[in-house]
Amino acid sequence: MSGSPVVAAHRLVVEAVDALAGAASPAATAEEALSVLTVCEGVVRQLDRLVVSVVADLVRRYIVDIVRATRANEDIQLGASPRATVALFRAARAAAVLDGRDFATPDDVKGVTLAVLRHRINLAPELEVEGRSPDDVLTALLARVRVPE
User: Residue 30: inside a domain, yes or no?
Assistant: First the structure.
C-alpha cells in the first residue's frame, strides 16, 4: 500500500506544507517564495493526475466486472466479448466528455451499458420465450455488480 496513489498524494501534501512553512518565515526572500509557489503548482498538477488515474482504474475494473458478469450469468447464453469491454470503456469516456469532464465515472458506465451491450449478448432461449429482453437482464445484472466508490 505504500506505493499506492493515495499514499503518494499524502506525501505530496506534506511536501507542499513543509515548503509553505519555509516560505512563511520572515527571513524568506522573494526568490524562495517564488520557488515554493512553483513547487506547490507542481504538487497540485500531480494530485490532479493521481485523482484522475485512481478514478480511471476504478472505472476500468468496473467495466471489466460488468462484462465478466455477462459471461457468468445463467440468463445469458453468450456473454459479451473483450471487444465489448473496449466499446463500453469508449462509450463511457464519450459520455463523460459530452458531460464536460475528462474522466469517466461509474454513472457514465451505467448510463451507456444497455446501449453498448444489448446487441452483444444472447439470452438463454427460455428467457426469450418468456418475453424478457436483453435490457431486462442487463438492468438486473447492473444491480448485482458492485459499484466502485
Answer: yes
